[in-house]
Specification:
The protein has 5 helices and 7 strands, in the order H-E-H-E-H-E-H-E-H-E-E-E. The longest helix has 15 residues. 29% of the residues lie in helices and 22% in strands. The chain has 192 residues and is an alpha/beta fold.
């Protein structure tokens, strides 16, 4: 695994040992970042279920101002810290070693919204169905926040309730998984 583009381009990244983490392949990561590249410059990036930290590090390498990486696996946290040191992004990153909902509650108290929120939860556990409602009602999002969920193609697609003000903007499918892009509905009278 490596950083694909930006200031840390070509630097190799460590991945956590074991089967708890599924590193995103370079090809899928490149496709994802081609889609969000215009939104990255100077962005606040939140990476939930961060694993190796590769997604947040790619965002920082491509111009994000800061990133918060959340994971509760000890080996993943060691790996994240090693990768941040190797790519020299320790100053721009905050690592939170705790349960994702606990981290969200703590971040919510600071009332600083993120521009992009990426989550890659363990597949087939329905964790995103608990996290998305919390996010969409929290101070962690603003009108232009993009939430991106990586999911298995075997899981039921995420459907946002119409009343919540968020919708699935697009789904980018790959061989075994997909990225679901969720955005806020424009307020009445706004032009997209």
């Amino acid at each position: 695994m490596r950083v694909i583009a930006g200031t840390a381009r070509r630097l190799k990244l460590e991945t956590p040992a074991g089967r708890h983490t599924r590193p995103t392949s370079d090809k899928i990561k490149e496709t994802l970042f081609n889609i969000i590249q215009q939104d990255l410059y100077d962005a606040r990036f939140l990476d939930l279920f961060s694993g190796s930290g590769g997604i947040a590090i790619e965002a920082l390498s491509r111009g994000a101002a800061e990133a918060v990486l959340v994971d509760n696996d000890r080996e993943a946290l060691r790996c994240i810290r090693t990768n941040l040191a190797h790519t020299h992004f320790e100053e721009q990153a905050r690592v939170m070693g705790m349960d994702v909902l606990q981290a969200l509650r703590r971040l919510d108290q600071q009332r600083k919204a993120f521009d992009i929120i990426f989550m890659d939860p363990p597949y087939s556990m329905g964790l995103e169905r608990r996290i998305l409602p919390y996010l969409t009602e929290s101070t962690l999002v603003h009108d232009d926040t993009r939430i991106i969920v990586e999911a298995s193609m075997e899981d039921d697609p995420i459907v946002m309730p119409p009343a919540c003000g968020w919708y699935v903007e697009r789904i980018k499918e790959y061989k075994n998984n997909c990225h679901i892009f969720i955005c806020k509905e424009p307020a009445a009278g706004e032009v997209e």
